[in-house]
């Protein structure tokens, strides 16, 4: 599938500095910041700086250096947030069935309380 990227999405605006964010980590190719509507005591979003719609788009087309940087950034944020002992959940929603609200790849890191089962049954 060929993805088309909407450069007016809210995370693109954050990357351009048009909208403020609460940054927790910035690397050469990635940015991590707190979710504006946290669902748990720790709720951090990690995004690549490149224009990728979702995980599949990124995995198919990003240079290896960006992929390595991004995966390492997710791990680094977990360690910085101190959630590796009690645990955490990574979520990356994509498309209509994934109920993706912002069409720029992001991983949610949620942690800080027991998170319940992975999905509701409905
Ligand atoms: P999605 O449903 O696309 O996986 O998640 C999008 C996430 O982005 C939501 O958890 C939402 O709270 C968060 N979000 C939406 N707009 C903003 C914003 O302007 N700033 C920040 N920090 N988070 C946002």
From TrEMBL:
Motif (Histidine triad motif): 104-108
GO MF annotations in UniProt: catalytic activity
Active site: 106 (tele-amp-histidine intermediate)
Coiled-coil region list: none
Source superkingdom: Bacteria
Domain (HIT) ranges: 10-122
PANTHER family: HISTIDINE TRIAD HIT PROTEIN
Protein's recorded name: Histidine triad (HIT) family protein
Organism: Roseivivax sediminis
């Amino acid at each position: 599938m060929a993805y088309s990227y909407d450069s007016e999405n809210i995370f693109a605006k954050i990357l351009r500095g048009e909208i403020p964010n609460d940054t927790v980590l910035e690397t050469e190719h990635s940015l991590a910041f707190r979710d504006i509507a946290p669902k748990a005591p720790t709720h951090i979003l990690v995004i690549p700086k490149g224009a990728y719609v979702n995980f599949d788009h990124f995995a198919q087309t990003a240079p290896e250096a960006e992929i390595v940087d991004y995966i390492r950034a997710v791990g680094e944020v977990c360690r910085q947030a101190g959630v590796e002992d009690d645990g955490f959940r990574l979520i990356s929603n994509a498309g209509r069935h994934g109920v993706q609200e912002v069409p720029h790849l992001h991983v949610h890191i949620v942690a800080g309380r027991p998170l319940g089962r992975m999905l509701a049954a409905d």
